[in-house]
Structure formats: C-alpha cells, structure tokens
Amino acid sequence: MATVFLETITIMSITGRNVHIKTFGCQMNKLDSALVEAGLRNAGFELVGSVKEADVVLFNTCSVRDHAEQRVLSHLGHLKHIKESKPDFVVGVIGCMAQRLGVELFKQPAVDIVCGPMQIAHIPRLIEQAMKEKKKALLVTEEIRKASSDGQELERFETEFGIDDAEIPGQAFVRAMHGCDKFCSYCVVPYVRGKETSRPPEAIIEQIKKLADNGIKQVTLLGQRINAYEYKTGDKTYCLADLLYMAGEVAGIEWLRFVTSYPSEKYFDEIMKAMCAVPKVCRYLHLPAQSGSDKILKMMNRGYTSAEYLGLLDIARQIVPDISIAGDFIVGFPNETDDDFTQTVGLLKKSKYKNSFIFKYSPRPGTVADKRLEDNIPMDIKNKRNIELLKIQEQISGDLASEFVGKTVKILVEGPSKKSRRSIEDKPGDLQLIGRTAGDWIVVFDGPETLAGKFANVGITRTSPLTLFGNLV
Ligand code: 5AD
Ligand code: SF4
Fold first, then answer.
1. Residue ID of nearest Cα to ligand 2 atom 1
2. Ligand 2, from 63, 65, 182: best to mutate by most atoms within 8 Å of Cβ?
3. Which residue in 53, 1, 71, 60 sits closest to 32, CA to CA?
4. Minimal-distance CA residue to ligand 1 atom 14
C-alpha cells in the first residue's frame, strides 16, 4: 500500500459536500461505485446526479479497452476548465485505470486523488484530506498480485456498505470473488484487480440476508470467473453450487443470478444442477467463448478448444433445457485470418445465444498479447467482422425472441425505459416501463411507475431481436 502526497497546493476551503460518481465499465465497477456511495453517505457526503451540482467528482474507471480509458481522459480534460473557475473542486480517479496508471494520472491537471479498486474503503478519508489539506493523494496497491492487508479493509467495507439501496430498485450485486488468475493474453484484469480470492460463504450469505431485509428481490453474485468460486474451511470446500443452494434458502430473495462464467469443466455440472434444482436461480448463463478458432483460443491462452466449449453448452442445455445463454467475442485478435473468423461464425451459429457482446481487439499495455503479438488486423477488417457477427446474432436473437409471442412472462420491473419516458394518452399516469425475465430478456410495456422493483406478468404481443413488447396481465 502506498500513500504519496505529491504536492501541497493552497486552495480556498470547500463548503459543499456534494459528490457525483461517474461509473464506466462492468458490473464489478457498478458494485464498487455503490459501495463508495454508501460509504460517502455514511461520512456525511451527499450524492448528486451531475457534475454541475458537485463539489467532488469521482470517475470509477475501466481499463479493459483503450476506448474506455480515452473517454475518461477526455472527461478529465473538460474538468480542467471547470477547476480553473472553481478551484476548490475535488476530482478523483478510482478503479482499474487508477491502478494501471497510478501517478501518471496526475499529468491531468484536474486530478487530485488516484485510488485503486482494492483501496476504495479509504475514499471518504482521501476526499476529506483533499478538501482540508489540499494535497494530491495516490493510493494504489503496490503489488496487486500479492496478498495484502488491503483485502481485509475491503472486506470490512464490503460487509458494512454492501447492504445499501441499489441503483435499480429491488436489485443488488454481491461480490463472491475478487480478481482473476486466468491471464488470458489480451486481458488487463489480472493486472489491475489482483489475485483471485473467494469471499467466505457466511459473509456472502449474511450480506444477502441483510439485502433481503432491506427489500431486495434479486441478487447477482459477481466474480470475474464466478464459476471458479472456491472457499476451503476445515475439511469442507464450498463451490458456486453450494453458494446457490445456501442463497436459495434466504427468505425474501426471489431471483439469484451469477456472472461471469468461464468455460471450464470444474464444477460446471454441479452449478448447472444447482440452477435446475433451486427455483430461485435464474436459468441464465453468460459464458464468453471469445473465438471459434482453436489457433486463436490458444494464442488467447483460454485453455479450451471450440469443441470443448460447445460441449459445455450441450451439458448446460441437457441439465437445464430452457437455459438462456449469452456470449462474448473478440474480433481482430492478432493474426486472425478469414479462416479463423469463419470458425468463429460457425461457433456463433451453433451456440444459439440469446445475445452476445462483440468487441474489437484492443491491445492493452502490459498484457502478453500486447508484448508478443502485433496488432496486425486493420480497423476496417475489425469493423467488418464486428458487423458480420452482430448481424448473425441479430438473426438468432430475433428467432428466439419471436417464440415468446403469445406467451406470458414473469419479469422483475426495473423502472421507466430511459429513451421514452412518456405517459399513455388513455391511461394517464402510466409510463413505458422496462423489466427483465429470468432468462435476461428485456421486456417493454406500459404500466405505473410504482411497479419498479416488483415482479409483474406481461403478455408478449411483438418482439424485436433484443426486446419483447407486451401488456401487463
Ligand atoms: N480487447 C477487446 N475486448 C476485450 N475484452 C477483454 N479484454 C479485451 C481487449 N483487450 C472483452 C472480452 C471480455 C469482455 C468483458 O471484454 O470479450 O469477455
Ligand atoms: Fe480477463 Fe480472462 Fe480473467 Fe476474464 S478470465 S477477467 S478475460 S483474464
């Protein structure tokens, strides 16, 4: 752990304690932001919805692709101007970019605080310090791959603040694991999120119980490789299946999810059997394939072949026939030929995903792929392959979606849909609402806003590839 005070700058003292947090990246970051918000509220700060209203702005950042980092840098550039006119404004960078770039981020004149993801428990104190002492502070874990005392501090923070209100009513994330030990050759996560460690099952279940007491209906267990969850105590080893059975007993929680899974055999059957046996476990699996070419999978250090991957999908569908599966792909990985790409297309067609997330390869400094392989696929080919996969997926999703027409689905309502907040002429007070099925299908329908955070049944009348539309029944 390193706290470095870089310089002392004299600025006027701050009176306001309004904080705005802007979150980039994955669900892990959303969870970290929720924890930081709860910690800040507890320390007497107020959370506000925009930079304009804020005295303190925190960026919770993502390093997984260059584009995500560039967006943050551009925001920080704009804040420089705000800071010139409002010198007691405090700006912090937290999350993966903070861990990856560390002190380098102080080249951005607006930045006062740089704090890594293992150090978020210290943010309220760092902000106080920046406000009172006008010092720039760097707090990142020096040797992120080594076990350190940061873990204990974080665990305390997590247990204390991981029980607060959720961003989406009725839903909460609970971390089951930290970090990743897989070292896929393209991926920055093991370098910024540290060693894979599973949290004690009793801490997780305790947290889920408290969330249920606070009215939470759906809990999503999080881990970079959630199906690798393993906690040894005495002579018992807990895996994700055990967690699901235990969490399934918590009264008040109605739906349980887990993301993201990694394609490996260990515990796979047990987890699928738990999904089948525990009615609360949503029949949804996010299982990124990344590529359909064995040559590329090997260069990615994924540790499976496309046939082995498809074998896992078969097992999942045998044990849980109505399971809904989502995938991830990276196109334009170094040396990906047309033939490699054709094999990815083949895998996509066989996998029958509900949806897939498709990314263009982005070299990440420090990763093995970046060090050893040239980013030699031109952007126009990456774009072309991206569009082709999206088109094929759209067709598959469209076909799967159309099977819902005429059926009634149970959904957990999230709230008004972002794009079209509108009231319906003949039903004043109704809005266009959005919800999700257990299989993660997005459902759009009209209803009262008071349904947010509650379950509802919707009769599906029409569909598009990614959305089901219908009416409340
Ligand atoms: N470039 C492009 N996509 C990446 N992903 C991870 N690292 C990279 C990278 N360097 C994608 C993978 C992963 C998802 C979260 O992001 O598909 O599953
Ligand atoms: Fe990255 Fe691979 Fe770990 Fe996923 S499993 S976080 S892609 S290194």
1. 187
2. 182
3. 60
4. 328
> Looking at the CA of 192, which ligand is closest?
2
**Structural domain harbouring 23:** 3-146
The atom number, within ligand 1, closest to the CA of 64 reads: 7
Pair 207, 159: CB distance under 8 Å: yes
Residues 101 and 140 in one domain: yes
Q: How many domains does the chain have?
A: 3
DSSP SS3 for 79: helix
134 shares a domain with 163 = no
Question: Residue 436 phi/psi, 5° resolution?
Answer: -130, 145
pLDDT at 422: 55
Q: Are residues 209 and 194 in the same domain?
A: yes
Percent pLDDT > 90 in the chain is 85
> Which residues of the chain fall short of a pLDDT of 70?
1-15, 145, 147-149, 165, 419-428
The 171-175 sheet, strands edge to edge: 171-175, 218-222, 255-259
Best residue among 96, 185, 197, 262 to mutate for probing ligand 2, ranked by most atoms within 8 Å of CB:
262
d(CA 449, CA 434): 10
How much is the pLDDT for 149? Answer: 63
Ligand with the closest atom to the CA of 183? 2
What are the phi and psi torsion angles at 459 (to 5°)?
-85, 125
**Alpha carbon of 300 to ligand 1 centroid (Å):** 11
pTM: 0.94
Are both 93 and 219 inside the same structural domain?
Answer: no
* Ligand 2 atom closest to residue 302's alpha carbon, by position in its atom list: 2
The residue among 146, 177, 196 that closes a domain is 146
Given this model, what pLDDT does residue 430 score?
A: 80
Q: How many A from CA of 187 to the centre of ligand 2? A: 6
Last-in-domain residue among 402, 424, 453: 402
Tokens 């082995």 map to which residue?
Answer: 308
